Recover the amino acids of this structure.
């Protein structure tokens, strides 16, 4: 497994206002696979992703990247793990406006003081189709192009797993399809591992497997998803919830 959580519980707040965002979730994200996380708003998808990725800590249970138990790491080592072993793509592209496309892509490597693998970066630039935009700044790009830069940046250091939280949430459907196609190719052609939170059944259909959360619990998994199958599954949630 590239990443996994076991008996994951996450409680926010204290006293009367506590929210049990994760209520005993155990799930693994296999290496070399594309996994989507779905579920209603507030079901704990982002919380699960953040805790699995070492962006947030669990109240109880364990989170692992590879064989590393994140609970064993102090803040400094957790920061290093996030920098060196994990990649992120967020709904807001989070590019640095003053840097060029090329500089944004290699930013994590530059911060880490490692040059990275020039051939890999070069191949990534072609995969994301940004060869002719490398010297532009983010403000000169469309939303879809900006998100493609963010995808290239996430994969630049060849992390063990890339986590994406609604990466197509701010994109029109065509740009969204491009970004999803990229994530799929990264997994299938470049043997990467992707975990993606999404609300969109069409997006989820790009994954190898979908895991469904409801009320902080893992309620279902679906292999070889299609948009129609995912939509039917989501409708079943709506019928049951008040
Ligand atoms: N920092 C926080 N403090 C308090 N409660 C929080 C915090 N973050 C999340 N929550 C609560 O935890 C629950 C799960 O939130 P989470 O963001 O994981 O949901 P989600 O499934 O990602 O929802 P969405 O689809 O709307 O993004 C929600 O009830 C939310 O209000
Ligand atoms: Mg969320």
């Amino acid at each position: 497994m590239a990443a996994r959580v076991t008996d994951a519980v996450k409680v926010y707040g204290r006293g009367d206002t506590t929210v049990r965002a994760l209520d005993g979730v155990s799930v693994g994200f296999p290496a070399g696979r594309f996994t989507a996380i779905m579920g209603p708003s507030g079901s704990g998808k982002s919380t699960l992703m953040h805790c699995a990725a070492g962006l947030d800590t669990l109240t109880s249970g364990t989170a692992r990247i590879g064989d590393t138990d994140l609970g064993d790491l102090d803040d400094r080592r957790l920061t290093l793990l996030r920098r060196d072993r994990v990649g992120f793509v967020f709904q807001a592209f989070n590019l640095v406006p003053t840097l060029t496309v090329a500089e944004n892509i290699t930013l994590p490597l530059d911060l880490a003081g490692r040059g990275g693998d020039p051939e890999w970066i070069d191949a990534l630039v072609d995969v994301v189709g940004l060869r002719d935009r490398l010297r532009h700044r983010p403000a000169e790009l469309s939303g879809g192009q900006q998100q493609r830069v963010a995808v290239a940046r996430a994969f630049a250091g060849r992390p063990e797993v890339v986590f994406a939280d609604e990466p197509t949430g701010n994109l029109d459907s065509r740009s969204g399809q491009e970004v999803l196609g990229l994530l799929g190719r990264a997994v299938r052609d470049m043997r990467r591992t992707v975990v993606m939170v999404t609300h969109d059944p069409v997006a989820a259909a790009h994954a190898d497997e979908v895991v469904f959360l409801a009320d902080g619990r893992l309620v279902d998994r679906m292999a070889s998803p299609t948009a129609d199958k995912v939509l039917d599954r989501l409708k079943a949630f709506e019928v049951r919830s008040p």
Remarks:
- Residues 12-13, 19, 21, 39, 41-47 surround adenosine-5'-triphosphate (ligand 1) (CB under 6 Å).
